[in-house]
Amino acid sequence: MGLLDTEFGKRRLLTVEVPAVEAYNRGRDPGFGITLNRVGGALVLSYQLKPCHNVYRLETRLLSSYPTVPPETRVLTPLKHCAHLLEGQTMCLWRQGSTRAASRWDPAQFTCVFAVQAAWRWLACYEVWHETGEWPLPEAK
Amino acid sequence: MHLLQVGAGSGGIVVLDLVARDPRVTRVTLVEPDTYKPHNVYRHQFPPAAVGRLKAELAAEWVREHRPDVIVDPIVADLTDTTWGDVFQDFAHACDVGVCAVDNEPAKFAFDALMRTAGKPWTLGEVLSGGIGGWVHRFVPGGPCYGCVAAHLRRNVTEEAPAPAPDYSAPGGVVAETTVPASRASIAVIASLHAAVTLDVLATIHQPGANQSVGASPPFPPREGGPGGLGGSARRSTPTGADAATPPPAPPPEGEGSKPDFSSLLFTLAVVPGVFDAAYRPYRFAVPRAAACLVCAARPAPTGEELDVALDDALARLGDN
User: What is the ipTM of this complex?
Assistant: First the structure.
């Protein structure tokens, strides 16, 4: 069920993800839109976010198994190490437990733009943490 | 009848054992990537001496011992591994019914995509954390997908006690919700229900002239006064009290004996404050297709080469200039 090499994946891209990205880009300042590029069997979204004071460059990778498997987002701009940052500056975003209640990524309701918005929220939390030492999301320790 | 099953864990092996014994089953394809580990012994059919062996092979041997006439194809692979996509597609098209007995969300969505693309009915069993109860869902072509069902149940049913807050300071650490194991008895109850529902689906397919009828019409219209009616409500409900339970269905009219009257069946096994107010109680849910579902809602799109061209154009438009 590859994203770029099956009818299922291509239809998902053309009818769900591409329109969502185009809606996101519409009217946005140059440099802050999303660009989409094929990299092997994956599709990579490249973009910048400015949640508070700083501008960050990011990429969100839609793997071949997307949308069944959640997207992976990493920050390209060097960050101070924090507990919510995984290897390669990948954001700790989608905890996938063994049940519906314990899982956060939902391919039936989320698009890749939701992952971009989640990254924005993560970076906003990062900036607060950077200043105060406290991660402000209530559900995270 | 050809059964395609994914998952041969403590629940999956029970479903497989009960369904594969049915004389209508002539072939089983089993997808399971894991190895039998010491902690599996307490809840599994296999002996401690089998630790270290592949579950797919153990399960295949189990079936062959009890049904030597059945052809069994064990596949040691992860269902979300797209390098196996073509193989899985071939088996999905060849099978008559699917059984999903996995305990992770990506694999459920992957199996849903596989079976929907192939146009085959399938069933899913889920034991709730701590063994307080469990779900059995059945899916048919043209009916709601797993995404529709999951979203509906998330909004309308409290099915688990609140989990402790995740600890992001230890992303590789133990996830709290997996530390509440279900007992073998509770797993066996839900798995047996899962097997019974699967056999019910098999019976539907097996009826003369009924092969395509499984998904021929909107299969699970919401029932007035039943749990399906909760779908229009903004409130989040627990399946407690009489309002959540569908009354026992009236006997079906002549000739309609196999028409399913629910998409999801919840069976409670314990009293849990705020979640279940009674043990050993069934609830039926007729979940409708969600118009906004990103997985199964119909969206016009070209096909074949035109689809490739349209996608190439879109990616060129959105790519780096």
Answer: 0.88
